[in-house]
Write a structure and sequence with these properties.
CATH class: Mainly Beta
Radius of gyration: 19 Å
Strand content: 35-45%
Order of helices and strands: EEHEEEEEEEEHHEEEHEEEEEEEE
Number of helices: 4
Largest sheet: 9 strands, mixed
CATH topology: Neuraminidase
Helix content: under 10%
Number of strands: 21
């Protein structure tokens, strides 16, 4: 474990509040971009037309980056969406997931409960911007309900929310019906084999440990030609309470990002739950990069982030280093590790 050398790159951009990173795998797209590696970058609180951008190494410096804007062509209208928090891929298909979380007034916000997919091999690009053609799936909280039901069925006790959030639980949604048993915040997704992994910032286990949902064989549904949300509720699901040294009952820790390296190993950022979710007198957990074991129930810390807050994205580099992104309201902030020569 290290809090070793981290290079900080701050990029002024119309795209801010980074929330997820995913490696570009298309050799054709990389060739057209003129680089040997690049990353899709998701944005928290972004508008419907700017859920993602492209992060590209700057050609004139070994450590710098630039951001390439991405525009979307929608298959079905222009759906209202915000709060993109997760990126994953199956082959050429890229998935963007919303948080499904509450808005600033602690109300259920359906604009945040979505998954978007697009084909990386069909991206149109030049040196100024690129365009993707997206398909939008309105989850209508099906995924959130399924996770809540799995927690109850598997008898996983969760930490009590703060009085402010508990008061919200008695509210009803805009349609006049109860949507979920408790607020559920998705902060990362990943594909491991044929399973969809969903990292939760909230709820967390009563032990203070972060919770990971594993939806078995979800890849078949995610890549189906006819894309509907309802079957998500019938997919077998396992909830993992991830043991890590940085989390405890008095210092609860939730997932902030997920990634899979080239060997298939699952990596995560865990850290403070934030936003008054837990009781006010609880301590803030540190942000830590974990490597998860194959059973997904234990995480080994391989990078800490002393002095940095809201580390919300991670992705591997070709040389074995890692890059991370911060949720910053004014710029794109990238942290990168450096391998000793």
């Amino acid at each position: 474990m290290t809090n070793g050398d981290l290079t900080v790159t701050r990029i002024k951009s119309a795209f801010t509040e980074a929330s997820a990173l995913l490696n570009v795998e298309s050799s054709d797209l990389l060739q057209r971009l003129g680089v040997d590696e690049a990353w899709w970058l998701a944005h928290d609180e972004a508008s419907a037309s700017s859920l993602v951008s492209l992060l590209i190494p700057a050609p004139k410096t070994k450590k710098g980056f630039r951001v390439l804007p991405v525009q979307e062509n929608f298959d079905q209208g222009n759906p209202s969406r915000t709060d993109a928090e997760g990126l994953a891929r199956i082959g050429n298909t890229i998935f963007i997931a919303g948080s499904g979380f509450l808005n600033s007034k602690n109300q259920m916000d359906r604009r945040r409960a979505f998954v978007v997919r697009f084909d990386e091999s069909e991206v149109i690009t030049d040196q100024r911007e690129c365009t993707i053609r997206t398909e939008h799936l309105d989850l209508s909280t099906v995924l959130l309900e399924h996770i809540n039901n799995a927690l109850a069925q598997q008898s996983i006790a969760t930490l009590d929310a703060s009085p402010k959030v508990q008061a919200m639980l008695s509210d009803i949604d805009r349609a006049g019906t109860r949507v979920i048993q408790q607020p559920t915040n998705v902060e990362g997704i990943a594909i491991s084999g044929t399973s969809l992994l969903v990292g939760l910032r909230w709820p967390v286990a009563a032990s203070g440990r972060p919770l990971l949902a594993e939806l078995h064989d979800a890849a078949k549904l995610l890549t189906a030609e006819n894309w509907v949300a309802e079957p998500l509720g019938s997919i077998p699901i396992t909830m993992h309470e991830v043991d890590c040294d940085s989390a405890s009952k008095n210092r609860p820790s939730g997932f902030r990002a997920l990634s899979v390296d080239r060997s298939g190993t699952v990596h995560a950022i865990v850290g403070s739950t934030d936003r008054d979710l837990a009781e006010d007198d609880l301590k803030r957990a540190p942000f830590v990069h974990l490597r998860l074991d194959p059973r997904l129930d234990r995480g080994q810390a391989i990078q800490t982030f002393e002095g940095f807050r809201k580390v919300e994205a991670l992705a591997p580099r070709r040389n074995g280093d890692w890059i991370y992104a911060l949720d910053d309201e004014d710029a794109i902030v990238i942290l990168s590790t450096t391998t000793e020569q």
